[in-house]
Amino acid sequence: MRSRFHQLKKVKIRQTWNKINLYNLARYKARVDGGSTFFQLKWKAKSASRAYHGEQIREGQWTRMFRPRARAVIPMDHRYLAENDGSELAAGRGSGRDKLRDPNQSPFNKYQIPYMSMVYAPIERRLDTAIFRALFASSTRQARQFVVHGKVKVNGKKMPYPGYLLNPGDMFQVDIERVLFATGAPKTKDQIKSGRGLRRSLRAMNDQKAKNAAAKREKEKEAAAAEGRETPTPVETPESKEKDEKDRLRMEFRTLQEHANVLLTDSKNAPSGKRKIALRKLKREIRATLSQINRKSIADLTSTLNSYTTKLAQSEDLEIFALGAPSKAINAEEMPDYQHKLKLAIQRARENPIDESKPYMTPWQPRPYMSAFAFIPRYLEVNQKICSAVYLRHPVARPGLSEVPSPFPMDMLQLAHNWYLRRR
Prior knowledge:
The protein has 424 residues and is mostly helical. Helices cover 46% and strands 5% of the residues. It contains 14 helices and seven strands. α9 (238-264) runs antiparallel to α10 (273-291) and α9 packs parallel to α11. The longest helix has 39 residues, at 189-227.
């Protein structure tokens, strides 16, 4: 039986946004056991760091990827280069010219270049790791799944290989729906049930439409074969005109119902208690009208639609108008703020609609505990609006900084680097 990927007893840091992983990060302490041998220290550092860096890669494959030489950037001070030619570094060796370090100054290793912290830099070139670093997936395994399922493009072409090594300037793009699913909050149990019912009804409706279309085609073929000529073009009758008009009114009622639902679920402008009661009553009336739309005339439906539109406008500032003029009828044109608020609410609903068919929570919300992992390395340029990123360059080491993100300290990465050297 395979061991748990996230576990609390034996702490292993993983490349995921899981809450257990966040808890392990908070309580993780890199201990260097003084009683262990150098070989044991290297093995422990390698074991702990490999659980985070490229755990989805086989050890033999990673051993072939490992390079002992790391890329680094050394800033050159033009003033120092102009004043000296390098001979001062060899002047006075052993004759008292060496300066003692002031303990009150900055630490000695602050300006050291952490070459050995770049031990896992080749893994950052992999496509699945770059997708995780660009915040397009909640884990490297999920990023790997996106690539294998054909949801990722590199330079405009589909790339099904998660181990593809990116070159400087490569652009990769992930399907937007997959990114919304990976970075969005999961559904609640009620939303999952309603989504299943909606998908079931949509499948049944599509099957029924396909059956009706097939039956209609069969009837047309039989009629054409019997008469020896093509089916005549349908003539528009008053009944068909009335049916089209009722279909248009049905869409208007549904749009009005959607507007009422938007106003009820608007988080920025939360409705008052009386307004909620009025909106819910209006939704019930619209639902009752939709159930009897075929029994009513077009004139009655038009007047009902106008009255519902006025009621929807009245529900915005019901309390204010009731206090000011309780006997006066309220007109939507008298409330300019209502039109603006309704427009903004509808715009927000269109940008972030409630869709039960989506596999993530709608309106979309970020995953819980995502903020602790929300950072992007320097070597990536990310555009979250189109879910694309550019691999600018390979990660490098700078004085006091390694561009390879890692939760482990420098001494542990040094031990892991020594483990992968050929001479152990």
